Amino acid sequence: MNQVGEDSGSPGAALKRASDALSNAGHIVCFSGAGISAESGIATYRDPLTGIWAPHDPQTMETASAFRKNPQLVWGWYLWRRQQVANAQPNAAHLAIGQLATIGRKVSVITQNVDDLHERAGSADVMHLHGSLSTPKCFACHRPGTLPQHQMLLPADGALVEPPRCGRCSGKLRPNVVWYGEDLPSDVWKSAVALVKSCEVLISVGTSGIVTPAADIPWLALSSGATVIHVNTEDVSTAQPNELMLIGKATEVLPKLLALVPRAEQPQ
Ligand code: BV8
Ligand code: ZN
Fold first, then answer.
1. What is the pLDDT of residue 209?
2. Structural fold of domain 1-42+90-130+184-268
């Protein structure tokens, strides 16, 4: 298994192999998890919750049954997370991926994250496998909910409030994210799989690979003949031939790696 910093002084053998693979690639997929937003101050799912949310386990709050049981708590948690994202900035890793699309190669961004930091870093057509915090939808009729800004903010005193109602059927509004036990949006999943099967390189950044079917993405790329480059503070590789492990923080590894990739001769 190759990792960054193997050789003394020069860029690591894996970093060299990774930049070579990217330099020969026409289509690159960037697949991200919560770890890419960690350095923007957004807690990962491995971090314990803090403040008023500390007593709660995220996994139990990310379900339809939790919302049915306590809509105020779940709605409040998502408003709090939305505010966390609004107060955060894209970091050097998001920006490096945003930049990659400007060097004449086809770049697709597929994320498990529900934040909008890839978009705010300049990436276009970001595919959100697990939805997004940006707009709510109706729990009953699934239509998107449009809300005045003040209803998308947690009350200053942190009070938990009833979720607003759908303008069409007056059902409760819920976050437009994919909860555990819910199917991923089939159109998004199908498009993501098609892109992963057709890319030459997939960079997998900041994901623990626990949640399926998203966790299958890197292995789908490998089995389709692509090179997979993992970027993570921990070793998450399975040391297969076309698999590279770059260990380090996304904001340190990604800019260094992507700076080594020249503009494509024949723009894609
Ligand atoms: C589905 C949106 C078909 C919500 C999320 C039993 C019963 C029912 C279902 C299941 C079951 N067993 C398994 C399942 C399937 C289930 C599942 O996978 N469960 C897990 C818990 C085992 N999946 C589903 O239910 C999915 N739907 O399968 O539909 C179906 C239908 C019915 C019944 C069966 C099947 C839907 C899953 C979607 C859940 N929604 N998010 C919200 O966010 O509120 S998941 C959420 O958690 C994220 O979106 C993401 O996918 C996941 C977290 O994973 P990561 O992103 O990897 O983040 P994590 O914190 O884990 O790791 C961070 C990584 O970054 C670490 O590796 C760390 O080392 C690294 N890192 C940290 N800092 C840095 C860094 N790396 C680089 N730089 C740094 N600075
Ligand atoms: Zn409705």
1. 97
2. Rossmann fold (3.40.50)
pLDDT of residue 128: 98
In contact, 73 and 56? CB cutoff 8 Å? yes
Report the DSSP pairing between strands 173-177 and 131-138: antiparallel
Atom of ligand 1 nearest to the CA of 249: 78
Residue 186 CA: distances (Å) to CA of 15, 88, 189: 35, 30, 5
The overall pTM is greater than 0.90: yes
Q: Which residues are catalytic?
A: 130
Q: By mean pLDDT, which of 122-131, 162-171, 228-237, 259-268 is the weakest?
A: 259-268
Q: How many residues belong to the chain?
A: 268
Q: How many angstroms is it from 147 CA to the middle of ligand 2?
A: 13
Per cent of the chain over pLDDT 90 is: 78
Q: Which one of the ligands is nearest to 175 CA?
A: 1
43-87+131-177, which class in CATH? alpha beta
108 Cα to the center of ligand 2, angstroms: 33
Share of the chain residues as helix, strand and coil, in percent rounded to the nearest 5: 35, 15, 45
